[in-house]
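In this supplementary section we document a worked example of the pipeline. Step one takes a protein sequence of length 217 as its only input; no multiple sequence alignment statistics are reported here. Step two produces a three-dimensional model, which step three serialises into structure tokens for compact storage. The input and output of this example are shown verbatim.
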Amino acid sequence: MAANVVRLGAPGAPPREAPATGPLASPGVARLVGFVPLAMFGALQWGALLTPKAQGRMLLGVVAAAGAGGLLLVTGRDRRHAVRAAGAVAATLGVIVLTLLIAGVPVRLLGPRNWDELASGLAQGIESLPAITVPYRGIDEWVRIALIGIGVALTGLAALIAFWPRPQARTPGRSLPAAIVLSALFTIPIVEHGPTDAMFGSPQDPRTADYVEGRFG
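The serialised model returned by step three reads:
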């Protein structure tokens, strides 16, 4: 687009170009701005699957996911493959470790010597999920860890998909798959609690996916 020329000053003075205009933010930054409120909305719905509610922990998961997305945006623009690879590895490992910590896994279980106990506990919690009722009021810590961990993991996975580096593309990541993963944060609680939110209607209502894609894509 040709720049507009504005003549200012005394007659005969050389023309001065008006400041160039363009998008206020890069597509990646704009996507991150759209990602955070949608992730927060879904996190609050997921946190209500437990009593007492785990919304605080779920919001910490959103912060971790946004941090991973920001790291991918920064390193993904670098022309050096090693920098992009390091950023991707750091973001992925960060999401995994923070998911476990935010879910409530004891720090001692993160050591390699205790991975068997960690795997056993997570398997126990996940296997118990089909038999529980929500909001979950039980005292089984592994069930609570599994519930929170799945929600935080969905948030982190959505961020990794949305902001994964694509050097040859104008925008990072894939918006539609990320939106589908992110929508699970509030469609699953709707299925469990029942379609009480009039804005979205029933969980199968296509308006739910249309809303997410319109805001996030």
